TrEMBL record:
Keywords: Cell membrane, Cytoplasm, GTP-binding, Hydrolase, Membrane, Nucleotide-binding, Receptor. It comes from the Archaea. NCBIfam families: ftsY. Its EC number is 3.6.5.4. HAMAP family: FtsY. The gene is ftsY. GO terms for molecular function: GTP binding; GTPase activity; signal recognition particle binding. One of its GO terms (cellular component) is cytoplasm. It comes from Picrophilus torridus (strain ATCC 700027 / DSM 9790 / JCM 10055 / NBRC 100828 / KAW 2/3). GO terms for biological process: SRP-dependent cotranslational protein targeting to membrane. This is Signal recognition particle receptor FtsY. The keyword Cell membrane applies. Involved in targeting and insertion of nascent membrane proteins into the cytoplasmic membrane. Acts as a receptor for the complex formed by the signal recognition particle (SRP) and the ribosome-nascent chain (RNC). GTP binds at residues 126-133, 208-212, 266-269. PANTHER family: SIGNAL RECOGNITION PARTICLE RECEPTOR SUBUNIT ALPHA.
């Protein structure tokens, strides 16, 4: 997970030398402490060179150009009082601190397990292939594992196999699925699921929807209708964490056309670059509610900046 970004960042914290290019910076620092008179200069790096390399690494790792520029500017502002040459320990600490400031703004304060309203209605939107239906299953499992009652609305009535797929998810999680025939009005499915939940004192309604390209105006209009009818308490945009800056463009279009309250980033377990997390945090201005970290129905977690930073800065 995030191996490419992790390796590139690790390269920043190594002493580059002809005789030992691959020695980890932590080991090199320890070596220098014992040989201060010979190797004191290797503890430092020119700040301008470091800032330039940070920006390159971020862009190479799917962080948007604008976000990478802003991160480097934040880093420079933090280091203004330092000398032209700074220690590796300083730059590593400062970079992590800057990224934490960025990511902490995307951490949600909402505790989904402790909401007052019943039923609490969640609408899931996004294009095909993001893992939206699987994400619904994961969140259903998350809620049920915490002793909550859940019902799923099979709102994707446009795709032939979608109703069957969400029904299988329901069976696996032990969750009832409200469904109509293929081609029926998805807004009516959402309405029936909500009324079903009200009558039976069910805690949560999770509404699936047809995956659609964010440029398809007709389908976006249908989504607006679902939202008007269901009046969800929370609308979550499901984004594929592997598609990099395309995720930002998707999010911006959905924001303009439908609006949403938070993001679920999927497939992070297979994402080597890892920069999409940073771009989403900086540019979307909506909380990252959950991240998908595996293939199983329990492989979902609330987004935690420290978890992400531990992944990319671990040795």
């Amino acid at each position: 997970m995030f191996d490419s970004l992790k390796k590139k960042l690790a390269g920043l914290f190594k002493k580059e030398s002809k005789d030992d290019e691959n020695l980890n910076i932590n080991d090199k620092v320890n070596e220098n402490i014992s040989n201060k008179s010979e190797n004191q200069e290797s503890l430092f790096i020119k700040r301008d060179e470091f800032d330039e390399r940070v920006q390159e690494i971020l862009i190479e790792s799917d962080v948007s150009f604008e976000s990478a520029e802003r991160i480097v500017e934040m880093l420079k502002n933090r280091e203004k009082k330092l000398s032209r040459k700074i220690s590796y320990d300083d730059i590593k600490s400062n970079l992590r601190s800057v990224l934490y400031d960025v990511l902490s703004q995307a951490k949600s304060d909402l505790d989904l397990l402790n909401v007052d309203k019943k039923p609490y209605v969640i609408l899931f939107i996004g294009i095909n292939g993001t893992g939206k239906t699987t994400t619904i299953g994961k969140i259903a499992s998350y809620l049920k594992n915490n002793n909550k009652k859940v019902v799923i609305a099979a709102g994707d009535t446009f795709r032939a196999g979608a109703i069957e797929q969400i029904s299988i998810i329901g069976e696996k999680t032990g969750t009832e699925v409200i469904k109509h025939d293929f081609g029926s009005d998805p807004a009516s499915v959402a309405y029936d699921a909500i009324e079903h939940a009200r009558a039976r004192r069910i805690d949560y309604v999770l509404i699936d929807s047809a995956g659609r390209m964010q440029t398809n105006k007709n389908l976006l209009s249908e989504m607006k209708k679902i939202k008007r009818v269901a009046r969800p308490d929370l609308t979550l945009l499901v984004l594929d964490g592997m598609i990099g800056n395309d995720a930002i463009e998707q999010a911006k279009t959905f924001m303009n056309e439908i609006n949403f309250d938070g993001v679920v980033l999927t497939k992070l377990d297979t994402d080597a670059r890892g920069g999409a997390v940073i771009s989403v945090a900086m540019e979307i201005k909506k909380p990252i509610m959950f991240v998908g970290v595996g293939q199983g129905l329990n492989d979902i977690m609330r987004f935690d900046p420290d978890w992400y930073l531990d992944k990319i800065f671990s040795s």
